[in-house]
Amino acid sequence: MLLFSSPVLQSALYGTGDFSVHILYRLIRTIDKGNIYYTFDPKERGTLKKWSVLLVLLGLLVISFPSLQALYYDWQQTRVLDELEQLQTGLSQLNHTFERGMENDHSDQKRTLKTATVKPSTSPGTLGIISIPVIDVRLPILEGATQENMKFAAAHLVETAAIGQSGNAAIAAHRAHRKGRLFNRLGELQIGDSVEITLADQTAFHYKIDRISVVEPSDVSVLEDPGLGQVLTLITCDPLIDATHRLIIRAVKVNS
After folding, report:
1. Which residue positions are annotated as catalytic (predicted)?
2. Does residue 237 have a pLDDT over 80?
3. What is the rounded CA–CA span in Å between residue 87 and residue 91?
4. 256 Cβ neighbours under 8 A, 6+ residues apart
């Protein structure tokens, strides 16, 4: 049995002021019949256990943070989509009610109601939904390519044409690392694939991809109006890891 109980040795070890030496001394083991015992007293053992649990919990939190962050952004994305869908459903019901009411009104009232437009109330900056069926993309579109907007949605660049108007409307989104998030699968698109946009007032626009390119981040020519009517330009980072360029998907509006 090995014991370090000498008062002289204890005094020497504690007197050094070296914390590591002190810890080493406290961890000196007593070996008896093949069993190992530690010299911590019960109070010290309880403190060490608490710190061990805290360190384990902290490590788990650090490891799981990216996944928790992605879940939070997915929740925000779903919330905005649900809000838009509820607004669109309410708009349809309201328009249907107006149409039924017009059947019983006088002719002058009918003419007045027919020209009335119902405006749904959306969250500030919420434009609509972009859908790309071939890669299972369905994202809310927010106004302004801010860092906060692009955490969970696609963003319309305010410097470009409005969606549904003549010119080049640009929409950007991050190319998240997790498959299926945001514009992660944009690189799978091919010329001829369809892109759909539905605004908050249920106005729908259909586009066909006619050009795919990879450009330098400083190349702003992709935002210029190519003179093809209503054009939609989708922008994301490329390649997926350590992005150095921009993947550009251009689509032209077609008649639905």
Report:
1. 174, 237
2. yes
3. 6
4. 204, 206
The average pLDDT across 156-169 equals 94
Per cent of the chain over pLDDT 70 is: 59
Token readout for 181 is: 């998030």
Q: What is the mean pLDDT of residues 172-196?
A: 92
Pairing between β-strand 167-172 and β-strand 230-238 as defined by DSSP bridges: parallel
How, if at all, do strands 29-32 and 204-215 pair? Answer: unpaired
- Under the banding of pLDDT at 50, 70 and 90, the label for residue 122 is very low
CA angle 106, 109, 115 (to 5 degrees): 140
Q: Where are the alpha helices (DSSP H) in the chain?
A: 7-15, 19-26, 42-102, 107-114
The residues assigned a catalytic role are 174, 237
- In angstroms, the Cα distances linking 17 to 6, 14, 20, 41, 97 are 18, 6, 9, 21, 84
Between CA 18 and CA 28, with CA 22 as vertex, the angle to 5 degrees is 145
Report the first-to-last Cα separation within the chain, whole angstroms.
89
Q: Which amino acid is at 125?
A: G
Residues 227 and 75: their CA atoms lie apart, in Å, by: 39
Structural domains of the chain in order of their starting residue, each with its CATH number: 7-68 (no CATH), 123-254 (2.40.260.10)
